[in-house]
Structures are given as structure tokens and as C-alpha cells.
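Hi Y.,

Following your request, here is the sequence exactly as I used it, all 264 residues.
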Amino acid sequence: MDYSRYQAIAFRRDQHVLHVTLNRPESLNAIDDDLDTELSWLFEDIAADPDTRVAILTGAGRAFSAGGNIANMLKVIENPLLFIDGMARGKKILYSLLDCPKPVIAKVNGPAVGLGATIALFCDIIYAASDAQISDPHVKVGFSAGDGGAVIWPALIGHARAKEYLLTGKSLTGEEAARIGLINHAVPAAELDQAVDEFAQRLAAGAARAIQWTKLSVNIGLKQLAQSVLDASFAYEALSNQTADHREAVLAFRDKRKPRFTGE
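Below is the corresponding structure, written out as C-alpha cells. Let me know if you'd prefer a different format.
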């Protein structure tokens, strides 16, 4: 498989395990237009890759992904039609991840925020450093949690717990996330690579077709859930893009001050 068209994502192969790294460390792997576009290709390419049985997804540097890009948010406020294009890519990322038969392991090496957290949590197995911060702070920037958080957080930890985190944007550590079932495992940062590599090689040595078809079978229910929630949650997020509170939150973040929400 030729991954040479990718510029924002790096690849390394270890036998049948493909290491996939979001490679924008200078921005904490915040998802800009280039990374968003490449993520919309990624899981279809992995699915078609005959040499890959397992993929490990992580971030370069000290973050998994800081989520949305504030500069992009300003552009989208001024041109709401850009949000429509982003919705289509966002849906493709999530559905192609669910439809990819190869197991995808998230290696959360540092902060996983917003869409970054959503992508990590949609993976099949999630390992995190014990002190990694995981959060979906859409509401803190005046956004509805529309890019998949409203699907995956309740599916993993139940509606009441999910609403506590989604309505406040509160973060939790990898250790806390493992304790409540949001992720599979939290390990000390120094042990994360080894733990993930060992698990990935175990899957890669297994009966590939059986593992793939089991993943796809389990994901049928999750896809049905996504189909029932995702369009509406994206639509609400598109509406929230036009609110005064969202504009205020983005400007406040840019100006390094506390936002003053009015409810508008």
C-alpha cells in the first residue's frame, strides 16, 4: 500500500502492524484542514492494505490530538458553508473507522480533546498513558458536541456519566477513564509503547478473518447508534456555529481571556 500522498500523517510498519501517527506536533496535532482530509482517507486505505492486520493510531510529540483548530473555527464562523464540507468529512472519518475490518488500537500518549477524543474512543481498543487528559470540551467553545461525542461517550459509559462530561467539558485522566470503562487500559507513560505493541502483535498473530468479522459484527450496533444520532448532532453543532456564545468563546480563546457567555 502506498501512503506517499499523506503529509500530515506518518506511517511505520512492523510486520503486519501499521503504526499511524498524527504528525503535527507543533500544534499538538490539532485537526486542521490537511489532517481532517487525510483522516477521511485513512481508514479506507487501511482496510484495503493487504499487508496490515492491525493499526496503531497515536500522535507525535506530547499529545494525541488537541482537537479542533481555533484559526479554522474563526474561518468557519465567517463562512458557515465551510461547516457543511467539514460535516461530510467528519462523518466519513467515523463511519470508515467503524467499517474498517482491521482492528485499530488508539495509543493515547497525551491529551485527546474534542474530535481527537472522539476518534480515539471510536477505535476498537484504547490504551492511554495514566496521566493523559481526555475531554470533549465542545461546550466550552460554545459548540454542541456534534462530531461523534454524543454517540460514543454514552455508548461507553452510559448516558448519565456521559452527560456529566459532555455538558461541562470536564477532562479526566487515562487512569480515571479506564476505571469507569471509557477506555480499555491505562498504563504509566513509560510503559505505553510496550503494552500497545504486545497487544497489537497478539492480534496480528491471530486468525485475521475471524478477528475482522467479529469486529464488524460488534460494530453493527454502534453503526446503528451513530446513524440515529450523528446527523442530528452535527446539525445542532452547525446551528451552534452561528451563536454569539460560540463567537465569543473563540475570540476569548484567541485573546487568552475568559469568555463572557450571554446564552445567545
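The mean pLDDT is 96.

Thanks again,
Q.
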